[in-house]
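Entry 14. Ran structure prediction on the chain below.
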Amino acid sequence: MSMSRKVYIETVGCQMNVLDSEVVIGTLRRQGYTLADSPAQADVILFNTCSVREHAEDKIYSALGRLRSLKRHNPQAVIGVLGCMAQKDQHRIAERAPHVDLIVGPGQLAEVPRLIEEARSSRRLQMAVSLGRAEAGRAEVEASFVSFDPVRDPTMRPTPFQAYVRIQIGCDKFCTYCVVPSTRGPEQSRPPAHILAEARQLVEQGCKEITLLGQTVNSYRFQHGDGRVTRLSDLLAALHDLPGLERLKFVTNFPKDMTDDLLDAVRSLPKVVKYLHVPAQSGCDLVLQRMKRNYTVAFYTDMLARCREKVPGVAISSDFIVGFCGESEESFARTVRLVEQARFKNSYIFKYSERPGTKAAQRYADDVPEEVKKRRNNDLLAVQTEISRQEHRRWIGQRVSILVEGPSKRDQNRFAAASPSDTLQLTGRTMTDHIVVCDGSPRLIGQIIDVDIIDASPFTLFGVVSSAASCDSAGLAGLPEAAAFPRRVPLPVL
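Output, structure tokens:
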């Protein structure tokens, strides 16, 4: 293979997709590919897709449409659609975008390098997807979804000192609105030894923070075959002792699997971030029943109380879908009350988008008008924003520890040309996953430092680097002290 070939990849969707893109590019790099900055510069153009919401799919079809002329002018270019949308809509993609050369589901990503060469030599569409849940027995379907976790590529990560590690693939919850059980297959937990080996590799590459990923990550249970079972709490304890690893996160959690042993681990293990993302989706029992979430609002609120009792000071965020089938004004009002009572750190709020092939699409009418969905989305967002503002302001006057991730959006364009003596607005996260911005030297990026919080918005805490942090002994002497920073930091939209 020519060492000059270039690959361009665009990723849409969740953290799992970000990780999938990293490992695909890592594999292609080992075969001589380099990254292109745009499709026009690339020999291979890949789209790693999401099917959770219609908007994500529309974005991909628009991008594919724009590539028709590129393909006409450069017939040797290979265009591929990867991920959940490829698994769900394989034939539809081929019909709507006949210039696509690869359609590869998330369980077949290890095949991408071979399929690229097949497409290039045969000039025919290459399709590799896993079995559908109803097409065979569970063992056969599981075998068709291969966990793809080769050598990691730090250049593909948002920062070299933060990384995702997949501990579980697939999902068996079968919420009626969700395509994930069909696009990512049955729930399977990875062997702990594989996870530990990957984490060691990441730490050796300079990674300080690892986020464990699973569709319902706290459902993780690995059966060893000799009667032993490894739970997520056990996995956290094993990872906690890795020298050089400083922070551990995990997302996303399912309410019914929030066990006491896991909460005890979050409380007692210092490296584990005191933050839980636990989607509620609705505050109405009738809607939860139609969603097949398998819990009630009372169960969810009891679970929240148990989290806060077991892990004092824990920050909790949630997800909500507004405008789900049959959601009345009273149902929505119940959701508002849950958000008001729960006082989440933040909530991710989405309008319901009917997905073909889901049980909700088969069983229920999408009967909430679009304008009502928009209003409810805005109303619930306004409630959560005010709660977030109030909760964030409680941090003013406190000192927090943050992992500095890089320049804020305001100063990203300045970062490339910045010298160690320059001052940039930096961003990082606390041990409760709160976003913090502060002014400081680029040399602080990748460091864990103390910051004094002086202001807050609903989305961000604003601070100054503490004097102790600015004179840290880890090669950071000479940084400006806190007094040199302005007392009011601009409020960018992050």
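The longest strand covers residues 399-407. Will compare against last week's run tomorrow.
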